[in-house]
Design a protein that fits this description.
Radius of gyration: 19 Å
Order of helices and strands: EHEHHEHEHEHEHHEHEH
Number of helices: 10
Shape: globular
CATH architecture: 3-Layer(aba) Sandwich
Structural class: alpha/beta
CATH superfamily: Ureohydrolase domain
CATH topology: Arginase, Chain A
């Protein structure tokens, strides 16, 4: 693909200029990769802050050096915001988040016991707002996919990318989802919220024409979720953190484990990346941190293996990045995960068709 026209006068070795876009790049209407920000975290049940993630990541991205040793120069194909952070669409999401958060907090405080007077009505409204959000995200993502763009959805809590996953599943029949997470996210509902961050993968598996869900890094889940995985007849495959750790301690090379993770994915892959899949030292302010997890290099190795296998990443999301008091560490890690996701996605789409595997 020819270089984005806006790149012609851009110096990738210089500091980001004031007013520049994501990764310090000039905004471009023909960018191959578009970032769809979804600053929403109304159903977060432990620590809020993920709604601030998109803005923090975009700001931190301006500190990322643009040459990547493994994926080369992803920036050359253009990376732009699909929705300006101060634009009307994002302002609407922030209004929904404010309203839904106000209604959801008493429900969360009550442990989801909506028998308390007034809470049932509040719950219904939160679920309704979440459905509106899903529809808005699906519409914007579908239009971008139709235009030939790669959509990078930037949450928000992990409930936010449902509409984007829907758009990709509809555009790519037989799609597989590669899910990085500390949590299984397979609850039918959590605290009554049908579109909870803890229910995203239940909704994906139950409502969308996804061929297979492959989960990696799981280490915090309930018995019901485990039973759902075990009874899925291979449609949901989980690679638990404890099993990965035990294998490595027994001398199994992580490269071999990566091949095992990737082998059950179909040809076309959507990546859903919850930052809490990583060791919490890399994301201490995320909403529900859990000890253990993947290193940055581990997660990158799994993505590398997806590409090496000949599979094609068609889109992705990055969720649950929450800036702390200073707002730099979590966002810097998130920005670098985002750039790796972009780089590997582009690399997977540039491969020769003859290398593809099923």
């Amino acid at each position: 693909m020819p270089h984005c026209r806006a790149m012609m006068s851009f110096d990738p070795n210089a500091a980001a200029l004031p007013g520049s876009g994501a990764f310090g790049l000039p905004e471009s209407k023909d960018a191959k990769v578009v970032i769809l920000p979804v600053p929403f975290d109304a159903t977060t049940s432990y620590a809020k802050g993920a709604a601030l993630g998109p803005e923090a990541i975009v700001e931190a991205s301006k500190q990322v050096d643009l040459f990547d040793l493994e994926t080369g120069k992803p920036y050359e194909q253009g990376i732009a915001m699909l929705e300006p952070l101060g634009g009307r669409a994002v302002r609407q999401i922030k209004v929904w988040n404010q309203d839904a958060s106000r209604l959801a907090q008493p429900i969360i405080d009550a442990g989801g016991q909506t028998e308390v007077p007034g809470l049932a009505k509040a719950l219904a409204r939160v679920n309704q707002i979440s459905e509106q959000l899903n529809q808005a995200v699906q519409k914007r993502a579908a239009a971008a996919i139709e235009a030939g763009r790669i959509v990078a959805t930037l949450g928000g809590d992990h409930s936010t990318p449902f509409g984007a996953i829907q758009a990709h599943a509809e555009a790519h029949p037989g799609l597989g989802v590669l899910h990085f997470d500390a949590h299984a996210d397979l609850r039918v509902a959590y605290e009554g919220f049908s579109w909870s961050h803890a229910s995203i993968m239940f909704n994906v598996a139950d409502r969308l024409p996804v061929k297979r869900l492959v989960q990696v890094g799981l280490r915090d889940f309930c018995e019901e979720e485990l039973e759902r995985i075990q009874s899925s007849r291979g449609r949901i495959i989980a690679h638990f953190d404890a099993h990965l750790a035990a294998a490595r301690q027994g001398g199994v090379p992580f490269g071999k484990l990566c091949a095992q993770i990737v082998r059950d994915l179909p040809q076309e892959v959507y990546v859903s990346f919850d930052i809490d899949a990583l060791d919490p030292s890399l994301c201490p302010n995320t909403g529900t941190p859990v000890p253990g997890g993947l290193s940055f290099h581990d997660a990158n190795a799994v993505l590398r293996e997806v590409v090496a296998s000949g599979r094609r990443i068609v889109g992705f999301d990055l969720c649950e990045v929450a800036p702390g008091a200073r707002g730099d560490w979590d966002a810097n890690v998130g920005a670098r995960v985002l750039y790796k996701l972009i780089g590997w996605t582009l690399a997977s789409q540039q491969q020769r068709r003859g290398r593809r595997k099923r």
